[in-house]
Amino acid sequence: MKKWFKNILNRIERLLGKKFRMTQQIVTAILCVGIIVYFMPRNEAFKYEINKGYPWEHGRIEANFDFTVKKSLTQMQWESDSVRNNFVHCFRKDTMTANTVFRNILSNCASKITTEIQGDSATDFRQLVEKRYSKVIKEIYDQHIILPQDFADISTNADSLRLIVNDNPRHIGTKECMTIPQASRRIAKALEIPEKELQAYIVPNIVYEYEYSQNLLNKELENLSTNSGIIRRGQTLISRGDLVDAKAYQILTSYKNEIENMIKNENMSDSSLLLGQALFVALCFALLLAYIYIYADEVSKNNNCFMLVMLLVTIFPVLIGNMVTIKVLHVALIPFAMTPMLLSLFTTKRTAFLTHTISIIICSIMLNQAYEFILLQIPAGLVAMLCMKEISSRSRMFTCALFVLITYSIIYFGYHLIVMQNLGKISYTMYLYFTINAILLTLTYPLMFLVEKIFGFVSNVTLMELSNVNNSLLLNLSQTAPGTFNHSMQVGNLASEAALSIGANSLEVRVGALYHDIGKMKDPIYFTENQSGGISPHASIPPEASTLIIKKHVTDGLELGKGLPRTIRDFIATHHGTSKTGYFYITYKNAHPDEEVDDQFFSYPGPKPFTREQAILMLADSVEAAARSIDKYTEENINEKVESIVNGKMNEGQLSDCPLTLREISIIKEVFKKRLKNIHHTRISYPTENRPAEKEGQQQGQL
User: Fold this and answer.
1) Which pLDDT score is estimated for 269?
2) Which among 113, 167, 415, 425 has the fewest CB atoms less than 10 Å away?
3) Is 402 inside a domain boundary?
């Protein structure tokens, strides 16, 4: 009854623990979504880079609304200059100027002539002179007298001017105008007066109206249209591969400016764009979580592993968001392939590739050349992941970085040959970026150890280093407890073969087996494999003391293995689970038949194995030790012993916390049986060769 109630409590605890763990993970995912969305750029609505004179590298773009195509600055400047050059300047004519000039000339020049004549004839002569002067000056001033500088300015740019007479403008040709020197010469010739005497009195009758002209010019400039055409909704602006000529460039630039103006005027940036980004990122994370909970138990049941996945799927989008916002560096410099490289060391290849893909898709919506970015990063991540298979040395990291560099280079070269169709237009600077990317990718090796320390993982590289029997801990074990060392080696061989048969981590099991009994170094003589001469120190002490010594090798092992990765230390803690020290437990019960025995005292501290690898080690350890007690190694005895040990562990509930299935347990038992039969097979006796003397003696005896 007590055992049944305890099992119920354990099930409730596991159920609540699972729900709590899932809640933690979902909250973590939501926080990651919020962090990514927060750092996403929101200052650019048009995500494409427009390179004039180059083929369009992106997909086809269609107008989502009607918009006008704006003229380029160059075209607007040309039209403005054309208006200025062809502008007809305004002059105002003063009709009273001729009278003023006539009076001045008459009073200063004609008076010299008329004063020489006296009498009645002088009056008549003066009237004739005035009449003649008036006629000549009127004829000259009926034309348009202009300052020489004004005439020079308008005649170089135009062949006409706008003349305002009594507020009525009309156009006249520049040929109808004459300068002051020209007017002086004509009047002097007609009146037979020295030109020098006239120059002081000849003034222009048309004057440049600067303010009026500028206002009129500004109106003409304002009336210049800034539009060169109109694009209707649904009309194709450009397709992939089309050349971005001057016309296409102006259309795309106008479309980009129109979108940005709409967002600015309608204040859409902080609402629509933010909502769209949040929905997109949330959907990507939802797909990743769905995969984890359906197919990736190694992630969903391990919070540290889940946190590593969330960290790697978040860090690169945040980095790209900051780079795009502050416009620094090039995206090709970022070693995105580091995500599948790291995750393939600590999770499955499938999880690593999917996490990388989700990260790349999220990053792509923040970039201009999203199509090219995805085309480069997805294959590079796949190559990096494949190169990390069974990695066991640091040189493998450099090989992986080299293959990623080659992948980047080939894809970029091939894609741009397809799009550009011209080697001269390929940006060879990208190959420098790819090389720097590959160099940064080699930092995965030191990062691997940092991840191991922070998240408690252990990589194959570390496992290979730990499996070296010449390291101080194992060397000390082989010298202090040689029997235990030999037992650990045999358990490692047995367990690794069983792990291979069910697809578990054989290297991890082998290394765990090497270290699982290091606690026996403190009191090696108290363990059977290290005893010689048939004398056991347990014979002189009570079973309770022996139990404490035997159980202590687990805690001693954890103390000695403080510098080991947590994964290996878990093998030390779980290799006996919570099972009893059977020999001393039964001995004590037999010696105290009337006493109720405390089962907890005779049980190992645990915990029970919670991974397949730990369970395999427990079974291999028990089977290898029990096989030494078989009197006669026959197939039946070996099969019986293996079945007894494995079934006993199952009946005790030692495998209840690990994910081993009954089918896998059956496969493991068959591997144990086969392996033990090979180890303990019967050898034939070799005959002894008779010596010559013995042969001669035998012959004489026969005689």
Assistant:
1) 52
2) 167
3) yes
- Residue 407 CA to residue 377 CA, distance in Å, equals 9
List of long-range contacts for 40-43, beta carbons under 8 Å, 24+ apart: 40/277, 40/281, 40/317, 40/321, 40/366, 41/321, 41/324, 41/325, 41/366, 42/269, 42/270, 42/273, 42/274, 42/277, 43/269, 43/325
Give counts: helices (H), strands (E), the chain.
30, 10
Is-contact 162 169, C-beta < 8 A?
yes
pTM of the entire predicted model: 0.66
| Dihedral Cα 28, 32, 35, 39, nearest 10 deg | 170
The DSSP secondary structure of 526-559, one letter per residue, reads GSGGG--TT--GGGGS-HHHHHHHHHHHHHHHHH
Single-letter code of the amino acid located at 259? I
> What is the per-residue DSSP string for 186-209?
HHHHHHT--HHHHTTT---SEEE-
Last residue within a domain, chosen from 399, 429, 455: 455
Say if residue 597 is in the same domain as residue 449. Answer: no
Residues 314 and 170 reside in one and the same domain:
no
193 and 291 in one domain? no
Q: What pLDDT does 1 receive?
A: 43
Quote the tokens at residue 375. 């085309």
Q: What's the domain count of the chain?
A: 3
- The pair of structure tokens assigned to 398 is 């450099």
- Say how far apart CA 523 and CA 483 lie, in whole Å: 13
411 and 541 housed in the same domain: no
Does residue 620 belong to any structural domain of this protein? yes
Domain co-membership, 521 together with 380: no
Asked whether residue 273 is domain-assigned, the answer is no
Band (pLDDT 50/70/90 cuts) for residue 324 is confident
Let me know whether 108 and 175 are in one domain.
yes
What is the rounded distance in angstroms from the CA atom of residue 480 to the CA atom of residue 530?
A: 9
Structure tokens at 563: 């510098």
Identify the sign of the CA torsion 591, 597, 603, 609: positive
Q: Is 518 exposed, middle or buried (0-12, 13-18, 19+ CB in 10 A)?
A: buried
**Among candidate residues 420, 455, 490, the one where a domain is terminated:** 455
Element (H, E) at 12: helix 2-39
Q: How far apart are CA 547 and CA 538, in angstroms?
A: 10
Q: What is the mean pLDDT of residues 11-36?
A: 80
CATH value at residue 521 = 1.10.3210
pLDDT digits (tens, 9 = 90+) for 104-150: 877 776 555 555 555 556 666 677 777 888 888 888 888 888 888 88
Burial class of residue 169, CB neighbours in 10 A (0-12, 13-18, 19+): middle
The structure tokens 């380029």 sit at: 72
Q: What's the rounded Cα separation, in Å, for the pair 396 and 508? A: 19
User: Collapsing DSSP states into helix, strand and coil, what is residue 61?
Assistant: strand
User: 556 is in which domain, residue-wise?
Assistant: 462-679
* Residue located via tokens 């997909």: 59
**Residue/partner pairs of 364-369 with CB below 8 Å, 24 or more apart:** 365/47, 365/277, 365/280, 366/40, 366/41, 366/47, 366/317, 366/320, 366/321, 366/324, 367/47, 367/320, 367/324, 367/331, 368/47, 368/48, 368/49, 368/58, 369/48, 369/49, 369/57, 369/58
525 and 668 inside one domain: yes
Rg of the chain over all Cα atoms, to the nearest angstrom: 51
Query: Do 122 and 201 have their domain in common?
Result: yes
Angle at 17 between CA 11 and CA 19, to 5 degrees: 105
Domain annotation covers residue 500: yes
Tokens in use for 490?
């045999």
The per-residue pLDDT for range 243-274, each reduced to its tens digit, is 888 888 888 888 888 887 776 665 555 677 88
